[in-house]
Specification:
The protein has 3 helices and 5 strands, in the order H-E-E-E-H-E-E-H. With about 130 residues, the chain is α+β, with helices and mostly antiparallel strands. It is globular. The chain starts with a helix and ends with a helix.
Length: about 130
């Protein structure tokens, strides 16, 4: 079982931003920007393009709703989307609030936020997602 499957199952703490029966969104613990969120399928699949076509479509629609919630909460020009997938063997989408394209460089130093800030950010995104 991957670390992301354990997170989605509630076995490992995460800062949940949104969820439904198929997908789970949570704050990245090594964020590029405040509000950097990961979207994963609950079904453990290593490679995003190994998901069924309709599953990929639903995952992207879910991610779009999460991105809209992030944009309501985090001041940004846009929310960037990236699929990398080598660091954890579980399909995932990165949603990163950005002011410029440089904010999407994964070689940038990662930001650090307090537990309280992470929780309040996740709570605000979840509230915006649910409204």
């Amino acid at each position: 079982m991957s670390i992301f499957s354990k997170i989605a199952a509630g076995e490992i703490h995460s800062y949940c931003c949104a969820q439904n029966e198929e997908f789970y969104a949570f704050l990245d613990i090594n964020p590029l920007q405040k509000g950097h969120t990961l979207v994963i399928p609950r079904r453990e699949v290593d490679y995003i393009f190994d998901l069924e076509d309709d599953e990929i479509a639903r995952m992207h629609v879910f991610a779009a709703h999460v991105a809209r919630a992030i944009k309501k909460v985090i001041p940004c020009v846009k929310v960037g989307v990236t699929v990398l997938g080598l660091e954890v063997p579980h399909a995932h989408i990165h949603l990163v609030p950005m002011q410029s394209e440089k904010d999407m460089l994964f070689s940038n130093p990662k930001k650090e936020f307090t537990v309280e800030d992470m929780q309040s950010t996740a709570d605000a995104i979840r509230k915006a997602f649910e409204s």
